[in-house]
Amino acid sequence: MAESPNGRKGLVEPTELVAWLREHLPATGRLVSDSRRVGKGDAFFALHGRRQDGSTFIAQAVQQGAAAVVVAIPAQACQAEDAAEGDVAQAEHAACGNFDYFKNLPTLPAGIQVPVCYVPCLGTQLGALADEYYDHPSQVLDVVAVTGTNGKTSTTHWIAQGVNDRLARAGEAQAVDANTPSRPAAGASTQRPAEFAGLVIALDGDADAAMQPARGRGVVIGTNGVGTPGALEYIGLTTPDPLTLQTLFQRFRADTEAPVGVVAMEASSIGLVQGRMQGTCIHTAVFTNLTRDHLDYHGSMQAYGAAKVGLFSWPTLQAAVVNLGDPLATEIIEVLHRHPAAPRIIGYWVNNAHGAPQAGQADAAFQAMDDDARARLRRFYELAMRCDEVLELALDRDSGQHVLMMFPGSVVKTLLQLPEAGADPVALASGEGAVHARQQRLQAMFRNVATLRLNVLGRFNMENALAAAGAWRSLGWNFPAIVEGLHQLHPVPGRMEIVGLPAAHVSGECEAAPAAAISSIACPLVVVDYAHTPDALTNVLTALRDIASQRGGQLCCVFGAGGNRDRGKRPEMARAVEAVADRVVVTSDNPRDEDPAQIIADVCQGLSQPAWRTEADRRVAIGAAIAQAAPADVVLIAGKGRETTQEIAGVFHPFSDPEIAAQALVSHWAVDTREVPHA
Prior knowledge:
Protein-Tyrosine Phosphatase, Chain A; 24 helices; Udp-n-acetylmuramoylalanyl-d-glutamate--2,6- Diaminopimelate Ligase, Chain: A, domain 1; UDP-N-acetylmuramoyl-L-alanine:D-glutamate ligase; 679 residues; 3 domains
């Protein structure tokens, strides 16, 4: 064994590290890479990051109680001379047989009296090592990993909310006399309304089957933090580093007072590429959508998409939930069909192409579609046939209600009676009487259809709700339970969050509040949302455009772009906002190390007309937009959601969009927001 620079512990190969850690740590010792989070008995991992060298924090970690230190030898320190130029992986592999590791490594601080080891070629093995050290904690949890450009936070929150609401209902049911008949969910019906008889509904033999027993409460890991929705601990990264992630799984497994059954976590593209989730036993993978983001890291949309697709090759996967309305779904389903474990594929789709045709009128509705709508429907049919199950939400624009359908993918092929694999589903479906006739022959078998009214704003949020429903289905929920779960959804903080509502609405207890707030014109309707990509801005603004029209007012958008991120999307964000909003306010987001003025200039390059206002001070920009709005107007504050800080020149300053907006409403409109909980 080679000697380290301080002469205490020397080289430890990755395969030996777990045994070394167990030798030098107490049973309660954790694995930590952030020196600020080190506690007594923990092991501090000094990693060499892109911006910081963890070895500079060894003294701090030891002072805080670290029982051992692991120094990861950076790749550049252990590259073999004969390795292929530019092939880092090969260089690291070759270096693992070379014991001259300690060249150019930093000298340990004087007085370090805890065991220290050096580990070469650690890299993406961290997750697997932490998983082994903690004895595979994720294997006893149902981990649902959600990936996509937009919708990850809302989807994960709703997955966990649904699990917890179900547990609460189960607890209430235990107190009810067993002879008392259960009552259906308010506002939900499992009877097929006659006006939807012309739609493909569903057939499923287990509609009334008992669900799998709940294993425990639902928690989230993601942008807003870690823990039970409504009581989150902020950790800084959408997908935590491998050590933190496995430590969280261990914490959840060890919680005997409030056992955890389901972990809904956001799987970012960067986290996937960096191997942060390695070692995790993922039960279900969920895909929401793919639009432009993070090209500063990935370089191209192809590489960005490939990172998302990689999640669906996960070896432990038992189920996958896929948005059939996104073009990337085709590639994902191809990958899933090649998966050796044959995961159950659950597709979902929000269909508002033909509204709610009356029985016998479906053919005319199909014929009336434009080419784009036909292409989307064609892709849906083709992909649905390759799914084990499909969840479809049809929108009834007249009633404001939605029709939820669940059916096996095989039903689509049976319904359309495709003569051959290459047949055009839309062409067949558009034939005289084709759809209705085939539906009539199967009508006796149809089940799993319900009407409901979702307490969410925007089509994109309906897609997120349907993604959560698909995850519930993958966990064994039957159709009535899914309907009940969707009916109980309540808003996610920082996602289409209305500022100025009473606390009851924010907690999901007051269903009348959203309608009241939207219809009231006593003051501007102020909405906070995390949207920070061109597509997300378009989705949110389009939903709010309709509300502004209903109120008889204009739509104002306050937004900026983050520093040290994809510069190319900045003018695209401006174009997306200008296309929908009446007034554009360009401000600072998280400038990080960049000059806010330059970021604003980059954004404004995408505007065809000068912005209504540009203001680097985000607080001033928000206040001005609200103060100068008319009572009927809608003001969207986009980009930061429920973030509690603003990063300027590397310094984190306390900042909350909902708090600033609430203060502006108080100052300029005398709106009482004392009951509104803010971050």
